[in-house]
Design brief:
Length: 389
C-alpha cells in the first residue's frame, strides 16, 4: 500500500499557511488490511479509518458516482485498484487535488500548483457536480483566500450556476450546509461568500429572503456586504455575524412582523445553533429601537433590557450592541448614528439597582420581581433625564 498526504494540508503548506489537520489517502489496500494494521474504521458508510496512534484520518482511494438526488444518493467504489489519479479526479478543486508522498514529492496531475500560483479556484472535472455542497465550499474558499487575490475560474462559476439553477442545493441537509455557512462567516472576507452565492444564483436557493434584498437594488445589498466586512474587521463572533446577515433579509422600511418571520424561517431552515438564532431574532426586533434609543421612554428601554435578560446574559446584550455598531459602521459617514455608549449606560444603570434592600423589606417571588422592575424603571428615568441635560 502507498500512503499520501492530500487535500487542505498540502494546499495550505504550499500557500505558506498554518496546517491544522492532515488527511491521508491510502492506495492499494483493502479495509481488512487496514484493520489488520491497527486502523479503526470510522463508520460503516465510508472507507475511512483512524490511525491507532495519531487519530488522523486515512481514507481508502475511491471513485464516486452519484446515484440519486441529495447527499444520500452516493455510491462509491473503493478498491485496491483505484489509482491515485482516479481518486484525485473526483475531488472538488485542483488546489485540493495535490498529493504528497512520504519523500515529500508532489503528485499533481490536474494543475493544482499552477492554479495556486495563478490564484485560481478551479474545479478538477465534471465530477464536481456530484456533490452540490461544493458550491458552498468554493464560495467559502473564496471568502478565505480573497485577501491573497484568489478568484473563481469562469468555467467553475458557470458550473456552480448550473448546479444552483438545477435545484440540487435544496437537497442538501441543513447540517452539512450550516457547517459551510458558519465556517464561511468566520473567514476573513465573509461578504465574499455571500457575493459569490449571489453571482452564481445560489443565494436565491439557499437564502431567498436575502436574494430579495439584493434584488431591491444595490443600496441594501451593498450595506449588508459592508456590515459583514466590518464584522470580520472587528473580529466579531459567529452569533454577531449571523444576526447581521439575517438583518439583511429585509430593509428597515419593512414592518417588524415580516422581518421577524423571515429571520425565524432562515433560523429554522438552517438549523442555526441557539445563540445565533436568539441574537438574530433580538436584533430583528430591537434594531430600530437601538438606533432611536435616545428617543425611547424609560419603560421602553426597560422592556428592551429585560427582554435581553441583561442580568443573567450580559454577553448577549454586548453582542447586540456590537451588531448594531457593525451595521452603523457600514453606512456612509454620518448616515447612521448609533450611540452604543448610551445603551451600555442604560444597562449599567438598570444593573446597578441593588436587590438587597428589597429582600430586607420582605419582598419575595413575583412581588420581588415587580418591585425590582419598578426600581429599575426609576433608575432608568433618572438616567434618561440626566443624559438629556
Ligand atoms: N465536498 C467535498 C469535500 C472534500 N473534498 C476533498 O477532500 C479534501 C478534504 O476535505 P476537508 O477536510 O473538508 O477540507 P480541506 O480541503 O482540508 O479544507 P479546510 O481547510 O476547509 O478544512 C478536500 O481538500 C478535497 O480534496 C471534496 O473534494 N469535496
Amino acid at each position: 500500500m502507498q500512503i499520501y498526504k492530500v487535500g487542505g494540508a498540502v494546499r495550505d503548506r504550499l500557500l505558506g499557511r498554518p496546517v491544522t489537520e492532515v488527511d491521508w489517502l491510502v492506495v492499494g489496500a483493502t479495509p481488512e488490511e487496514m484493520q489488520a494494521s491497527g486502523f479503526r474504521p470510522v463508520g460503516a458508510d465510508f472507507p475511512v479509518f483512524l490511525h491507532p496512534q495519531t487519530g488522523e484520518e486515512y481514507a481508502l482511494a475511491r471513485t464516486e458516482r452519484k446515484s440519486g438526488r441529495g447527499y444520500g444518493g452516493f455510491t462509491f467504489h473503493a478498491s485496491p485498484d483505484v489509482t491515485l489519479e482516479e481518486d484525485l479526479q473526483r475531488r472538488d478543486l485542483t488546489i485540493n487535488a495535490i498529493a504528497e508522498d512520504d519523500q515529500g514529492q508532489l503528485i499533481d496531475p490536474y494543475g493544482g500548483q499552477r492554479d495556486l500560483r495563478a490564484r485560481l479556484l478551479r474545479h478538477v472535472s465534471p465530477a464536481f457536480a456530484e456533490d452540490p455542497l461544493r458550491v458552498l465550499r468554493v464560495a467559502r474558499f473564496a471568502a478565505r483566500y480573497a485577501e491573497t487575490g484568489f478568484r473563481i475560474a469562469d468555467e467553475t462559476l458557470e458550473l456552480m450556476r448550473r448546479l444552483a439553477r438545477s435545484g440540487e442545493l435544496s437537497a442538501l441537509t441543513a447540517e452539512r450546509s450550516w457547517k459551510e455557512i458558519s465556517r464561511a462567516l468566520m473567514e476573513p472576507r465573509p461578504e465574499v461568500f455571500i457575493q459569490v452565492l449571489q453571482n452564481c444564483d445560489a443565494l436565491a436557493e439557499l437564502f431567498p429572503e436575502l436574494a430579495a434584498t439584493f434584488a431591491k437594488g444595490n443600496a441594501a445589498g451593498g450595506h449588508l456586504l459592508g456590515t459583514l466586512r466590518q464584522c470580520a474587521e472587528h473580529d466579531q463572533p459567529l452569533p454577531v455575524r449571523w444576526a447581521c446577515l439575517l438583518l439583511g433579509c429585509t430593509t428597515s422600511a419593512d414592518s417588524q412582523q415580516p422581518r421577524l418571520a423571515a429571520i425565524d424561517t432562515l433560523n429554522q431552515r438552517c438549523k442555526a445553533p441557539r445563540d445565533c438564532q436568539e441574537l438574530a431574532m433580538l436584533l430583528g426586533r430591537y434594531h430600530d429601537d437601538a438606533f432611536n434609543a435616545k428617543k425611547l421612554h424609560a419603560d421602553a428601554l426597560l422592556d428592551m433590557l429585560q427582554h435581553f435578560d441583561i442580568y443573567r446574559r450580559p454577553e448577549r446584550f454586548e453582542q447586540f450592541v456590537a451588531a448594531c455598531e457593525m451595521h452603523a459602521l457600514a453606512g456612509a459617514p454620518g448616515e447612521l448614528l448609533f450611540e452604543g455608549d448610551y445603551l451600555h449606560g442604560a444597562a449599567s444603570a438598570a444593573r446597578a439597582v441593588p436587590v438587597k434592600p428589597l429582600l430586607d423589606q420582605g419582598f419575595k417571588g413575583a412581588d420581588l420581581g415587580k418591585a425590582l422592575s419598578a426600581a429599575r424603571l426609576d433608575a432608568l428615568r433618572i438616567y434618561c433625564r440626566e443624559y438629556s441635560q
